[in-house]
Amino acid sequence: MTSDAGNAAPEPSDTPSAERASNGAAGKGADRPGDAGVDAAEAVGTADAVEVLGLVAALEHQAFARLAGDSAQAPGLEQALALSRFAARCTERRDRVLARIAELGGDPVAALARFGTVLDDFDARTTPSSWSERLLKAYVGYGVADDFCRLVARGLDAQSRVLVAELLDDASHAELAVRELDAVCAQDSVVSARLALWGRRLVGEALGVVLRLAQRPGVARVLDRADVGSAPAQETPATVFNELTAQHTRRMSRLRLTA
Amino acid sequence: MTSDAGNAAPEPSDTPSAERASNGAAGKGADRPGDAGVDAAEAVGTADAVEVLGLVAALEHQAFARLAGDSAQAPGLEQALALSRFAARCTERRDRVLARIAELGGDPVAALARFGTVLDDFDARTTPSSWSERLLKAYVGYGVADDFCRLVARGLDAQSRVLVAELLDDASHAELAVRELDAVCAQDSVVSARLALWGRRLVGEALGVVLRLAQRPGVARVLDRADVGSAPAQETPATVFNELTAQHTRRMSRLRLTA
Question: What is the ipTM of this complex?
Fold first, then answer.
């Protein structure tokens, strides 16, 4: 990971030794005397930002493929059209994040590639068996992923932070999912109960993915700077877990389902 | 079909009897005396335009799904990114055509739905067995489909004609296909020979699809007005076939493959 992060932001000062130096000085701020130390910390900061932005871009890229697949399987043409538009928007969001990675001196494609398989496990464990299950999977899966990205992004430089917050402020897919799932659940309490169960499986798997992501050194450092719930750095994982769970409960209650 | 076309453009004057009146007056122009005749001809013209625009929109919608699938299967991330961008652009083009259908008083979703399965046969008969075959399928398939749409669009009202011509003027997918296939063919003459054969199968199937489309009454009437190769109306199918074949030969020669 450390050397990967170095590759993603090939700046003059971003050497493995600089990376190690800062890895030792974990925690918030990492204010050390001497120009070399500041430069090294800055380089690590940039490499970490590229890592986190690579994750955001990868999630958008995979959301594109998923929504395009959903569009092809949608039961109605109106839904297929709406989902294809959401998919198209994912490519725009992804490309804006890739442009920011390039601005920071990183390699956009390498940064994206690092997270190319990030959802493979999640997908293998959660194969939907109906259109409603598919919609709920996207609703819960994107919900957790977006919430996590929003949390981590708080630890980025101002420009990247604003960009991520702005991009993730598009609730159009969630609105479609809520509208359709709400209609389904209102008609059939058995389906509703099964979907509630499915939602619990989905959120468990999704939290597993993001908590593993949170342990990647680059992501963890940005997360520490993010002041999640203003807890001490060593409690960050628990705080992230609590915050994501709370958001998930809110999301399920929009469907009148118990989380 | 005739009553379908009526449904797509529910204007006051677009009654089944108006449709029949103009069906009888086939050929170019259909100049008949009396206001009722002109109104009826206009209504048929609009219904036919909606039919043709529905075809263009449906092809873009299906190109979106296809390119998104290609993006997911692309051997490299650079290609995956490029293909996802092409897919996104298909949704924009489709939506511009749907907007034009609405402007003409048609029902965009109904117009699109009429051609929802237009490529199913083509797909069933042409399953690619490699990435190169997949690329060539899109290159040949879109090539023939776009050429056909361009031909038919010449028979539309000025605004629709300009719109279709403008939308289909995006050669970015063709350029990617040519670049990649050219590289593959340059390295391996056996692969090159197999791809030439595959290209011939593809164009045969694609021409079959468009010639069936050309026989739909609404499409046929627009095609007659299109003055294809300035031949008499009854020779239109042969002229369309010749023009599409000539374009295909040009397209294959860009790959240095024999059509």
Answer: 0.81
